[in-house]
Amino acid sequence: MTNPLSERTLIYAADLTPEDVRALETFLNVQLGRVHEEVGETGDTSFAMRSLSILVSDSVGCLHKLLTVEQPETWQQAAIVREWQRLRSTAHPFNHCDGYDHRWWKQVRHYDAADAAAEQERIRHYAALHPWTDDEEAQGGED
User: How many CB atoms lie within 10 A of CB 43?
Assistant: First the structure.
């Protein structure tokens, strides 16, 4: 049985805790270990599972290190979002398995509210510079 949606929904990467990362890591290690046991120690599938386990471990290590930074720079914020997304998308195919936390279902696309607002402002600015039109002439005419 999966874990029901908890009262604390992850919206921004700034809300991530080391406990969130450990929980997702544990879940992934259990699932990948189970599959690895089924496929055995040899063959391409086994090698792929081992490689995936290494990638999970690397992402977890990177996240743990980045989460210790008190005021992360923009590139660090982007790395936190990217690594969390990498882990949650790896867990997504196992969403039917025991231990899956439905907070992992939703993509975390921004580091914080300011990052989300800045993206919306960039979109508005671009839209003002390049307004959308259905006019065929603006799109290059007819074929």
Answer: 10
Q: Tell whether the model's pLDDT for residue 8 goes beyond 90.
A: no
pTM above 0.70, yes or no: yes
Average pLDDT, the chain: 85
Write out the two tokens for 83: 């690594």
CB 40 within 8 A of CB 46: yes
DSSP string, 86-120: HHHHHHGGGTTSTT-BGGGTS----SSHHHHHHHH
Say how many C-beta atoms besides its own lie within 10 A of residue 129's C-beta: 7
pLDDT score for 136: 47
Tell me which residue of 69, 76, 62 sits closest to 21, measured CA to CA. Answer: 62
DSSP character string of 41-60: SSSHHHHHHHHHHHHHHHHH
Q: Give the Cα separation of 27 and 32 in Å (integer).
A: 9
Residue pair 46/39 in contact by the 8 Å Cβ criterion? yes
Vertex 32, ends 49 and 104: CA angle to 5°? 120
